[in-house]
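Holo prediction — pyridoxal-5'-phosphate.
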Amino acid sequence: MKKSTKAIHAGAPHNSQFGEVSIPIYQTSTFSFPTAENGAARFAGTDGGYIYTRMANPTINALEENIAALENGYRGMATATGMAAITTVFLALLEKGAHIVSTDCVYGPTRVVLEGVFAKFGVESSFVDTSDLNQIRKALRSNTRVVYLETPSNPTIKLSDIRGAAAIARQHGALLVVDNTFASPYLQRPIEFGTDVVIHSLTKYLNGHSDVVGGMIVTQDEALYKRIKPVLNQFGGTMDPHQAWLVLRGVRTLPLRVERAQENASKLALFLKQHPMVTWVQYPGLPEHPQHELAKKQMDGFGAMISFGVKGGLEGGRILMNNVKLFTLAVSLGGVESLIEHPASMTHASMPKEGREQAGILDELVRLSPGCEDYEDLRDDLDQALNAIKRMANSNKVAEEELSTQQR
Ligand SMILES: Cc1ncc(COP(=O)(O)O)c(C=O)c1O
């Protein structure tokens, strides 16, 4: 099956009782055993029946099957949120004295949980620019167990070479874990390049309607599945059946939504590039993007996320965000509606300023998640909001001074 067919058919009901086309929501916490012997057999694993929803549930399984098929992986494990997927994988693959090498500009809480929580239990972490394979090589230690990539990264939209990182990790005896949230399996399937574990925040493109939070872990083999699944069951970051059903409904239109959002993003990137109030644009589809060639090799498209620098720095960004009318000022991404946010004061505010700037998350950086509206409406909204910076600068002394400094 090809990917659009999988998005619609993988995980579809196998044994439908009434001919249902959509998987029912099995909204039950527990499952009855026909006999005591059968109950014992289910716990012993000799009968495949369900026991308890924290461990497995048919609606959740349908979603796990769907995403694992899209990722070309062995099996999926659905989690309550993307962060639950990330922390479950860390809990399963890292131990006291272990070391992890991670992309420096990862989703803020991913870094915070490693530095603030896992560090307490003796896990060491290094954050490097993984778009440079040499930096990964240099950061490896004898106790490195995991190399962790977020590609494209949030919010700097840098790409890391998955095949190259997988070879380095394998040679060192470490595992490669990739957060594939920004690309979605429609555009990038890290397991095809040697990744061991793929993580998603389903909250983004896979669900796509900004109405559910959720996460997914997909492993490339059975051994890793068996290592991670018990940790998920015991720590309990499991998904709810209704949540799974909503995400499954979203996934059905993933190809259509991603194609549309990507088309809007590529046009907006060109528009922003020539706008007088914009200092730089980071979008993998632009030939000047440092990893434009890599994007062509490991992605099926350039994605829909854009970051750009706005004239007037922090103040310029504030004016821009207060003046958009169609773009919604909100964190998150990957929904049908277009969102705008300011990472330094929002998603990445939990990172220390120094680390944030080292990772390229500058105060002037604005992140866009174009959705599926008409391009012309999105363009006109950004245009009028960007022009408001200039207008406001004329009536605001502080902003004007900042602006003229930037323009010099
Ligand atoms: C790249 C990335 N990974 C993980 C997460 C965490 O996902 P969730 O918010 O579903 O816990 C996010 C959330 O924004 C994200 O952008």
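READOUT: The chain has 15 helices and twelve strands.
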